Amino acid sequence: MADDAGAAEGPRGPEAERPRAHGGKAENKEWIPVTKLGRLVKDMKIKSLEEIHLFSLPIKEPEIIDFFLGASLKDEVLKIMPVQKQPRAGQRTRFKAFVAIGDYNGRMGLGVKCSKEVATAIRGVIILAKLSIVPVQ
Question: What pTM does this model have?
Answer without folding.
Answer: 0.76
